[in-house]
Amino acid sequence: MRQRPYHFAVCLSIVVGLAAIIASQRYDVPLRDPDGFLGPAYIRLPVIGLLFFAAGIAPPAFRRSRRTYTETPQWRESRDYGSPITSRLLDALVTTFFWGLVAGIASIGWTAAEGSTAGRAAVVVVVLAVVAAFGAYELRSQTTTGMTTISRLTEIVVLDESTLRPISWRRALARQTLRIVLPLLAVRAVANYAHPYIGDWAWLGVLLIPLWLMTNGADRLVAARRFEANRMPEDLAPLQARQKPPRLFMFMDIIREEWTWKRVLYIVLGLVSFYVCYVSYRNLKSDLPLARAGVHFDKQMLDIDYFLFFNHNPAPVLHDLLGTGVAAQILSVIYVAYLPLIPLTLGAFLVWGKDLSLGAWYATALSLNWVLGVVSYYIFPTYGPAFVQPSMFADLPDTSAAQLQRSLFRAATKFYEDPAGGSTYGIAGFASLHVSVVVSAALFLRATNQRKVIQLIGWVYLGLVVLATIYFGWHFIADDIAGAFIGWAAVVIGAWATGNTKRQRRKEQASLEAPPPLEARPAVSS
């Protein structure tokens, strides 16, 4: 299986694609490619793949070029080479960007907690804790190495430490104050307008990749140009006598050594199979009102929720426990962030993974989520609490999650009026694919033994997503339970289909370690 890990995913995409085409012909509705962040899926998936490809070849290329002229005793021991202004500005850009994000989140929380003394006090305490902790690390780092801690921790910028020199406490304190205060003031000025739409901005995190490339490239360019122009200290003269001149970019070397045609083919197969399954899922989901007209199980699901919460509806209980201010804003960002996170994680595992079968496993598991999810839609069609009992959610503030619900409701209304028009129906409750896909991601991180911090983030995010689905009325409790089962099943089936079960791996390892058979030799007579 591990030799041909995409056979199952390709066959699955063909089957579900044919099902979508047949349904489109039967109900006389056109096939659609729904828009998402960065546009349609056929645009955003290749863009994500190219971005991760660039980010995958750039770091080793920069590291290699850096070794040719920076990782030498002469360079490290030099004290005459001061900090170039470009390095300082780029480092300041990344740090200011980080504090701008902190300021934006703080401003959103402050605005959302209006009228709640406890809520605003909590926002102040959290902001002060973050500012104090990172501010202290920043001051210490700049006065010892000259480089900001934010750049190191985020790995957005990996500036050559040899191009930076320590600065005094006074200068570091003044710079740090400006980098914290200015973003706070700037973001606060637009927070009242921006905070309802912060969920729509979650995908902007992808811009950190070109920012990383730009800052690394510019810093390497400064160092290389100074080296080539003989503007170096005298103790670096031996470096200039080397026969092999240093090169700034070594992209082609990395591509030749690590990017085989097989690896490129596997990445393309993963993206295409995921794309076909996802678009087919969206089209089959849009055909649901035509195939199961007048059938829905919301009454039964409401009764189950009522029973499980001891004669209470779960959503109002969560509203009372968590409030409808800061919690609503945070959970909204968590819920909507799912939309860009899934294709981004897919791109990361497909492009950056050295074991190609692991990327196939993740792509197959995600594709199975779409297929199993749409099957559950047709078995038990539901709308969800927010669409059958909207009065329970009338007290919630205007968030990106609420805007998404209104958008889906308007699209559903237009679809009922004209199914063959341009609108896509997108309301379905059972099962929750938000939960199923995140369960698959969390289990995959655990099964592939990723870093503990990443695994913890996955499980925490899963818990918050489950909470958000009930809080905003997207799903019933039974929807989340069914979604968790689908997510688990997708990972298990995906592991089997790509040869990544423990039994298959043990068998493969045993075959590799088995001694070669002894050659039979004819007996020699004396």
Task: Please tell me about this protein's structure.
The structure is a single chain. The protein is mainly α and 526 residues long. The chain has two domains: 7-42 and 255-502, no CATH class; 81-223, no CATH class. The chain is 70% helix and 1% strand. It contains 22 helices and two strands. It has helices at 7-27, 41-69, 73-77, 85-112, 117-144, 149-154, 169-194, 208-228, 237-240, 251-258, 261-286, 288-291, 298-308, 314-322, 326-352, 356-379, 385-388, 400-417, 433-447, 452-471, 477-497, 502-513; strands at 35-36, 39-40. Strands 1-2 form a two-stranded antiparallel sheet. A hairpin with a 2-residue loop joins β1 (35-36) and β2. α5 packs antiparallel against α7, α11 (261-286) runs parallel beside α16 and α19 packs across α21 (477-497). It starts with 6 loop residues before the first helix and ends in a 13-residue tail after the last helix. The relative contact order is 0.13.
